Amino acid sequence: MAEPLLDISEFRMYFHTEKGVVKAVDGVDLTVHEGEVVGLVGESGCGKSVTSLSVMGLVPQPPGKVEGGSIRLTGKDLTHLRQREWQRIRGNDISMIFQEPMTSLNPVFTIGDQIVEALQKHQKISKKEAKKRAGEALKEVGISRKGILGEYPHQLSGGMRQRVMIAMAMVCRPKLLIADEPTTALDVTIQAQILDLMRRLNEETGTAILMITHDLGVVAEMCDRVVVMYAGEVVEKADVKTLFQDPRHPYTQGLLKSIPQLDKRFDRLYSIPGNVPDPRKMPEGCRFSPRCEFAKDICMTQKPDLLDLGKSHFSRCWLHDEKKGDADRDPITVTT
Amino acid sequence: MLIPVLIGMSVITFFIVHAIPGSPAKALLGERASPEALHQLEEKMGLNDPLYIQYFNYIKNLLQGDLGTSIQTGQPVSEEIIPYLAATFELALFAMVIAVFFGVNLGIFSAWRQNSSVDYLSMVIALIGVSMPVFWLGLMEQWIFAQELAWFPSSGRLDSRLFFEPVTHFYFLDALIQGDFVVLQDALKHMVLPAVALGTIPMAIIARMTRSSMLEVLRSDYIRTARAKGVGELLIIYKHALKNALIPIVTVFGLQMGLLLGGAILTETIFSWPGVGRYLYDAIHARDYAVVQSGILVVATIFVLINLIVDLLYAWIDPRIQYGKE
Question: Which structural domain, as residue segments, surrounds residue B57?
Answer without folding.
Answer: 2-63
